[in-house]
Amino acid sequence: MLQSQKNLRGILLMVLGMACFVLNDTLVKLARIHWEAGQILVVRGVFALVLLTIWLRASGMMQRLGDVAHPMLVARGGIEATIAMSFITALGVMPLADITAILMAAPLIITALSMVLFRERIGWRRWSAVVVGFGGMLLVVRPGGTDIPFVALALAIFSVIGVGLRDLLTRRIPMDIPSVVIAVTSTIGTLLGGLVLVITTGIWRPLGPSELLYTAGAATFVILGNLAMIEACRDVELSVVSPFRYVVILWAVLLGIFVFGEWPAPVALLGIALIGASGLYTLHRERVRHREELRASVPERG
């Protein structure tokens, strides 16, 4: 297969994966009308674990379940639980497009955290992209200018910081640990986080058929989304494929309109555009830097 064909396959899978993630969020938001965040995390986690167990058995990797005790996976599962609790709590009261746009600021957060935690060298161009993206996020959340509770906005921003930390940690997980095992750890973490919320609030509502259907569908879509994302990044040029992750904002706007009747305010649309533009520019600078590093690593011919 030509590299261009591999890239096209990766792009299609990336677009599909983003659609799956937004469909998961949509179904969770529908379930959130009747259930609290903790109950959703527990029920969705049970469904997801069943599906992942079937996946492990079908792929002959049940013996790798011992890897879930790896310290880095345990830490990642804890971060994943914190993200899920914050995100789903905020999702109950925030427009789908707005919270998705905030989550898309993750690459900018990763850029900033890379410098603070790992002393990576960040040039003025990438810092400019971070500042522009942060400005876009402020336009989306509009502090004091929306009817969204401040706590929900704070939880949404907290969750995106968690995504940045999770992805930085993921880069350092040994490559010999299968992605599906990492997914199992994440699922266990979010399920336990849901149990903490249920115990803390003491709220558990009746398991109606509609809500069960929503959470079962959400579990299916989140697993399919993860699988599509993993496959989209294999044997492709990431600088070509990665920018298509921003199609998630388009999916979120469309589903927000057609499912919930949530029309983004013009200023929020401007903020979404700024976040997308700054993220794309950050990816462009990564591509340029990677090209320069490759050029520097090739010895000159005398």
Please estimate the helix content.
over 70%
Q: Helix and strand succession?
A: HHHHHHHHHHHH
Strand content: under 5%
- Number of strand elements: 0
The coarse silhouette is globular
Q: How many domains, as an integer?
A: 1
Distance between the termini: 35 Å
The profile of the biggest β sheet is: none
Rg over alpha carbons:
20 Å
Characterize the structure shown:
- By secondary structure, the chain is mainly α.
- It has one domain.
- Helix 3 packs antiparallel against helix 7, helix 3 crosses helix 8 and helix 6 runs antiparallel to helix 12.
- The radius of gyration is 20 Å and the shape is globular.
- The model has no long low-confidence stretch (mean pLDDT 80).
Ordered list of secondary-structure elements with their pairings:
Layout: H1 3-32, H2 37-59, H3 71-91, H4 96-103, H5 106-118, H6 124-141, H7 150-170, H8 179-201, H9 209-232, H10 238-241, H11 247-260, H12 266-297
Helix pairs in contact: 1-9, 1-11, 2-8, 2-9, 3-7, 3-8, 4-11, 5-6, 5-7, 6-12
Short description:
The protein is mainly alpha-helical and 302 residues long. 76% of the residues lie in helices and 0% in strands.
